[in-house]
Design goal:
By secondary structure, this protein is of the alpha/beta class. The chain has helices spanning 18-28, 121-132, 137-146; strands spanning 4-7, 38-40, 46-47, 49-52, 64-69, 75-78, 83-85, 88-94, 97-99, 105-107, 112-115, 149-151, 158-160, 167-169, 176-178, 186-190, 199-201, 208-212, 217-222, 225-229. Bound molecules: calcium ion (CA) (3 copies).
């Protein structure tokens, strides 16, 4: 697994609901009529980074997205297919574009930073074309096919993975780990579940809780997947740990 998603608490210490953020993007992102986005540190039709802003400030979602290529690569606009191609490696969701000391751009208020995508030209075109029209489903398909590592903020996050084997880390705060049991959700791991503070969002009556790895970990088994709680004594896990 190479894809990492880092959640960034805003200044208030609020956490991030990753699935909620993407659902809000899908429902409310609009680039407006005459906004084609901008390539950064390149030409009019190419560059190592690409930013597209939201131009519909009346809706709940106001963030744009910043796409970044893998090292040494550049995006370019393919006039034939009307797609942006290149090696999409990183994506951030936020609206305040700033430059670091090397001149590379980042979003200082980004809610989520995704890295390690390493997509081919064709997949880059598919994912960015969908995002351009306010649709994160192609990006989420990449997540589902590979599994992701999601790293929470210091705030109270809601962290849910996809169909692959995901590694979820809350990083402090009172975090809720959610599992989509409408289909297979894979064999997921929660690396820092804190008994009495964090919660699991899955039906307690649909799972079994057992000791694993010689008592070091807890294994929660559902018909559509498993959850390993690393370093948690299974005796500590009961109905009160579930939403
Ligand atoms: Ca957290
Ligand atoms: Ca999963
Ligand atoms: Ca407990």
């Amino acid at each position: 697994m190479a894809i990492s998603i880092d959640l960034n608490a805003d200044g208030s210490g609020n956490g991030v609901d990753l699935q909620g953020l993407l659902a809000d993007f899908d429902a409310n992102f609009s680039k407006g009529s005459f906004n084609w986005g901008q390539f950064l540190n390149g030409g009019f039709f190419d560059g190592p980074q690409y930013y597209l802003s939201d131009e519909d400030s009346s809706s709940s979602y106001t963030d744009g997205f910043l796409a970044t290529t893998g090292s040494g690569d550049e995006f370019s606009y393919d006039i034939g297919t009307h797609q942006i191609v290149g090696n999409l490696d990183a994506l951030s969701f936020g609206e305040t574009l700033v430059q670091d000391g090397n001149g590379d751009y980042y979003l200082s208020d980004s809610a989520a930073d995704i890295s390690g995508l390493n997509l081919s030209n064709a997949d880059t075109g598919t994912v960015l074309t969908a995002l351009y029209s306010g649709d994160s489903s192609e990006l989420q398909s990449v997540f589902a096919s590979q599994g992701v590592a999601i790293n929470g903020s210091t705030g109270n996050d809601t962290i849910g993975g996809w169909a692959g084997d995901d590694v979820l880390t809350g990083n402090g705060g009172a975090d809720t780990f959610e599992f989509d049991t409408s289909g297979n959700f894979g064999d997921d791991t929660v690396t820092d579940f804190t008994d009495g503070t964090d919660l699991l969002d899955i039906d307690f009556n649909s799972v079994t809780v057992a000791s694993a790895n010689g008592g070091a970990d807890t294994l929660i088994t559902h018909a559509n997947g498993t959850i390993t709680l690393t370093g948690v004594d299974f005796n500590d896990i009961d109905a009160t740990d579930f939403v």
